[in-house]
Every structure is written in structure tokens, then in C-alpha cells.
Amino acid sequence: MAALVSIAVAFAGERVLDLPDRYPIHLPGSATLIALFNPQIRGFDNAVVGYAIMLVAAVAFALLAGPYVRDLPAPAAHPEAPLDREPRPRARRGPPAAVVAALLLVAAVLWGLLAWSVYRKHHELRYLLLLLASFSIVTGCLALHDRARGVSLRLRLGRGEAAGVLVLLVVCGAILSFDLTGIPHSMWGDEGAFGDAAKIIAVGDRPADLFEVGVYGFPLASSVYQAAFFELFGLRLWSWRLSSVAAVLASLIPLYFLVRAMYGPAIAALTLVLLTTSPFLLVFARSGYNNIQAVLPLTLALCLVYAAVERDSRTLFFVSGAAAGTVMVGILPWIRSLAGEADLNHKLFEWVLGAEMYVTSVFREVTLENNRWLEIGRLHVVLDAGLWARLLVRGVIRTMAAFHRTDLIEWHYISGSLGGP
């Protein structure tokens, strides 16, 4: 009975959020909070009271219903999941510690040479070999360590299932690539800039530098990837959009194994079909934007970290981290920015680093002195930790409210058109 009362209290808190116009609440000190964080939430005082009531009700429900939930039987683990923990093979002796330390030192030196070459703005793709060599050495050392601990890195996949997955990928590819030049029949306003950058690289008018800053401040590596499709299939719209289709197809492979490990092969196959036919995915899988390229590293990272936890593998943890951010390609362009040698986009600093236009528009009372900026050419980066804390708190508050109620927040991605139905 008490648990039911807590649910009723939660509904009452939800109701308080709907009454800022008819029954506004005025809390002491709310004006100070609004001036400090500027959350821009409709009926801020009502929202504070409503969420406080719902939080108390949720804690009460958890305390009251917890004993009943703990008595429920645990679900049985799915057998034969491909990424589940396998019986440990017999441990073997690993390489001497001195050898491992020497290899890691070599990897660190190679990474330093790569950073220096990026700083000196060398465009040759051969410098990518430094990145691959450093990554391979660290991965190899961790694999030897896992082997010495008896951790298996094998992937169990029968021939029949492999053939089925291949057929499924072919079907998904046919769906994604159907009438690429006709659907969609037009391009968005700023989409063409990505195609132009890729064409310039494909015809050789700009070096294919993976560590340079590209369109709208994105790493140029995304345009280098699209340029490869222009070189393979010609300078046409179909080739450009095919690069997005290929990125989606590549992300379906780790997605299959991740879902298979959790729920089995049938649910994994159904997931691929549902995702491929999702209208939201089809929009970006057929566009020239580079947004869809981020799906593969994200999905691969989730798949690998799941396997790393199940197998207690240091190697898979490291590779999942490398896949999660493609840190080398995304971060190294800023080495050049510190030297003032990169043509950086001002909007990127406004959005990511909090430049003057953004900070002063959110906190209108703020006037920043020179000692609170880092000047990079004509750009100014905020260094004040207090302002960063206020921006982060504001973002968390607004995002949590937007996830719950889109009518409470304006000018937020979640509550905008792309986050709606």
C-alpha cells in the first residue's frame, strides 16, 4: 500500500510541472539560482518543487519495493553467446618484463614522433604508419599479457551463422543503397561543403592529411574517407553517398555481435533489420554529412568493452578505448592550433570551448578580462573554471529536463525537431 502511495505522490509532482501559469510557485532564493545558471526552464520554481517531490517519491518507492524485487529469481544467462566469458585456457608464461617495458618505450617514442610531425604540419600519409606501429605494439604487449593470464580472445562463429550474417548484410546494403541518387532528391543547405572538400582531395588539389582540420572544424580525416570513394567510383553523387552507406554497413557487424552476446542471434538479426529500415538512420545513411561515420567507432567500442568485461581482457579494454574516440585523428589537430598554424573554424570554439559570443549570451552579466582568456590567433578560449562549472551545471539541468519533458525547454537539441517524432 505504501508503495502505491509513493507512486501517487510521483504523479502529484508531475502535475506540479503543468501548473506554472495557473498556480505559480515562488521559492526564496530562486532568483539567485536563475541568475547564476540561467537554466531557461519554463516555470523554474514549479519545476524545482515538482522534481523534488518526484525524487522523494522515487526514493520511497525504491526502499519500499526493494525487498520484493530482491526475492525474484535471477534470469538465466543465454547459452552460447559469442562474447560471454569462456573457460580460461591454461595460463602460459609471458615475455620478460624488461622486453615489455622496452616495447612500450618504443611505442611511446613513435607516438612522440607522430605528435611532432603533426606539430610541424607534415602532410605525408606515411606518418600514419607511426600511429599504426605505436598502436600495434601496445596491443601486442597487452595480448601477450592476456595470454599469460589465460584470457582467450577467440570469436566463436560457426560457418552457417557466418553465411547468414553475410546474407543479412547484403540485404541491408541493398536497402540502404537503393536509388541513392534519387532519395533524398535534394541536399541540405550546408551539406555540399563536405562533398566539395572530398572532391578537392580526390583530384589532388589538397593533401590528404588525416590530422588537419577540415569542414566546419571537423577532422579532415572524414573528408579523406569520402574522397576515397570518389577516387574508386568517380566524381558523382552516388559515390559520395555510398561512403555513408559503407559506414553504416560496417557498424552493423559489431552491433550484431553485441546484441547476440546479450540476447541471442535471432534478436541480433532482427535488430539489424529494424535499424536498417529506421527512417532516422536512412536520412543520415544517404546524406553527405559525416555524422554517420561516428556510429562505427561508437558501436565497436561498446561491443569490445562488453567483451572485455566478460573476459577480463586488458587487450579488449585498450582497443575499445581506441575505437571510442579515434583520439589520434580527433585531438591531434589541436596541436597545430596551439602553434597558431591551423585555420580553425570560429564556430567550433563557440560551441565546444565556450568563446565570447556563447558565454556572454548565456551569462549576460559576465565581462571577461584578458587574463581569463587563452588567445589563439584571433580566437579566445575561456579559461575561467567557475564559468565552466556554471556552463556544465546548466547543461546537465537543461538536458535532464528535456529528456523528461520537451515542453519545459526551448532551444535544446533533444526537444527540437531532430529529437521529436
Fold and architecture overview:
Helix content is 62%, strand content 2%. The protein has 18 helices and 2 strands. The chain has a two-stranded antiparallel sheet. The longest helix is centred in the first third of the chain and has 27 residues, at 44-70. The two termini are 37 Å apart.
Question: Order of strands side by side in the largest beta sheet?
Answer: 1-2
**Helix percentage:** 55-70%
Classify the secondary structure makeup into a structural class. Answer: mainly alpha
Please state roughly what percent of the residues sit in beta strands, choosing from under 5%, 5-15%, 15-25%, 25-35%, 35-45% or over 45%: under 5%
Quick recap of the structure?
This protein has 421 residues and is mainly alpha-helical. The protein has 18 helices and two strands.
Give a quick set of tags describing it.
18 helices; mainly alpha; disordered C terminus; 421 residues; two-stranded antiparallel sheet
Topology overview:
Blueprint: H1 2-17, H2 30-37, H3 44-70, H4 97-119, H5 128-149, H6 159-177, H7 192-202, H8 221-233, H9 237-263, H10 265-276, H11 279-285, H12 295-311, H13 314-325, H14 327-331, H15 333-338, H16 346-353, H17 356-362, E1 373-376, E2 379-382, H18 385-404
Antiparallel strand pairs: 1-2
Helix pairs in contact: 1-3, 4-5, 5-13, 6-9, 6-10, 7-8, 8-9, 9-10, 9-12, 12-13
